[in-house]
Amino acid sequence: xxxxxxxxxxxxxxxxxxxxxxxxxxxxxxxxxxxxxxxxxxxxxxxxxxxxxxxxxxxxxxxxxxxxxxxxxxxxxxxxxxxxxxxxxxxxxxxxxxxxxxxxxxxxxxxxxxxxxxxxxxxxxxxxxxxxxxxxxxxxxxxxxxxxxxxxxxxxxxxxxxxxxxxxxxxxxxxxxxxxxxxxxxxxxxxxxxxxxxxxxxxxxxxxxxxxxxxxxxxxxxxxxxxxxxxxxxxxxxxxxxxxxxxxxxxxxxxxxxxxxxxxxx
Length: 266
Ligand SMILES: Nc1nc2c(ncn2[C@@H]2O[C@H](COP(=O)(O)OP(=O)(O)OP(=O)(O)O)[C@@H](O)[C@H]2O)c(=O)[nH]1
Description:
By secondary structure, the protein is α/β, with parallel strands linked by helices. The chain has helices spanning 33-42, 85-88, 103-123, 146-156, 169-189, 210-214, 245-248, and strands spanning 19-27, 46-48, 55-63, 66-74, 93-99, 129-134, 159-162, 239-242, 264-265. The protein has a seven-stranded mixed β-sheet, with helices on both faces. It has a two-stranded antiparallel sheet with strand order 2-9.
């Protein structure tokens, strides 16, 4: 199985290989997906970046005394979800991020949660999602109350956190580790690995573009049986960059941070 795109199975005990978890970060442009990802990987806040870059990073974590090989896809969907299969069929869990100072970003996070719910329904497989209200440090400019965030999360049955990529690292780390725990619970329910990309192309009668039902332009909903190999993300779109968190977190070895291409890290 490909180590980049495959869905590995959950580890079964302390002696087994590290648990492998794929995590996708979704949300409107500017919500803070990249800032949160980089904060988690490096403990640092970035303020400049290339918004069009989409990369998948890898980090060795320890969650509840269990080694975890965590891959984080920092998605860049531009204005609307596109080619969603690249993360829908890849991730074991999702972080859906909105910026609490933007009502539009909150609306878009709702669309993402709806997309995930529909995907779960159509594939009969659910992957946990966590809803994150980012930019807590800007709370004085908030357009979305904490109660609204909690209500939306409650509607979709997911965990909810308010966070800031600018504030303490531990809280951001806690949220990512919660996503790992959620993914682990789900993986343990399904001990067999699940297929990822199947080459057969066959339109199903019930297949309908999400555009029609949910206003998500350019994102068609395919069941696993209709996803074709050519929909696999190009290497450039989902490049695996290994960042050992212990190295990335060490100021003495700061050059290692250049692995996070496109970011200026201070
Ligand atoms: N004050 C504050 N600014 C933040 C926070 N997180 C991100 N930002 C800023 O918000 C802007 C957008 O952040 P990004 O992390 O690039 O947002 P994104 O969701 O990755 O956006 P795209 O890359 O365009 O998809 C940047 O200027 C960040 O510096 C935060 O927690 N607090």
